[in-house]
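#struct-queue
[09:14] JT: dropping the first one here, sequence first, then the structure tokens:
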Amino acid sequence: MRHRKRTAKLGRTSEHRNLMLANLVCSLIVERRVTTTLAKAKVARSVAEKMVTLGKSGTLHDRRLAASRLRQSEAVRILFNEIAPTQKDRHGGYTRIVKLGQRRGDASQMAILEWTDVAAAAETQSPAKTETVETTAPAAPEAAVTPAEPPKSA
């Protein structure tokens, strides 16, 4: 009997499932949002929130635990340096799932998995960056301009 067994198997072996979820969470960390099926998003949400909890404490042991689960050092660095500091004030609920329609091929329910505060922080920072970096194109030299041909007389 499977009483109190809460693991969603997703039709995969445990090794395949763990690697798939690690890859999905790494994509979420790097890209800030991921479009996937609703079932995968629900399972990946719990993994992602546990990784943020590790990132909030920021100890070497927690960094090693996250690296052993995610298996991508770049994603662990982004998690601990960029995402976890923005979530310091929250006590859970770091991700959100937005339901989309059904996929066309197999009618599977699709969803977007994204961070709650990181997207808002990135939107507030991006306009400031665009205002400070303003470049103007140099004016074209006048010698390069060709004179217009004189009108033809009939």
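[09:21] JT: and here's the second one, same format:
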Amino acid sequence: MPKTRLQKEETVQILADKLKRAKSVVFTDYQGLTMNQLSQLRNQLRDQGAEFSVTKNSLLDLALKNTSLPISIEPTSGPTATLFSYEDEITPIKSLVKTLKDASIGKIKTGIIDGEVYDALSITRLANLPSKLELQATVVRSLASPLYGIVGVLSANIRNLLYAVDQIRIKRGGEAQA
């Protein structure tokens, strides 16, 4: 049953609200993904504080015009699914790109991250970068590695002293320790 004008206006308002709240938005062609794959993707994205929805292009374009976002969706550009990321900007995009790549189906059309428009290639490149948590771990590891070196050097002198004392004790007729 077709939607009434009132229902369409309500959908446009909901979409405009989602677009305003989202830290990043990615538009993708989802054609070819099975319902099972879409369901798994939606569940995964929900756990990451994101939402994946399919909407008519004309309604999505109207919602984009109601926001200050500098982009539009052509009503004839084929089926479009939208990823709204509310918490982390990049992690949900990584999940989406990985799902599309694993299925060898679908493609990224365009995206908006922090108010800037990115093309499909840029979105894919961003998805291939390490996550914020991985980058933080790398920084901590690089900051901690000199400390481990200092601990190793300082403990080596004590360890060498213990070996020397043990060798002197053995030389004087003491028993070797196991």
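[09:30] RK: nice, looked through the second one.
[09:31] RK: The two ends are 84 Å apart (CA to CA).
[09:31] JT: good to know. DSSP finds six helices and five strands in the chain.
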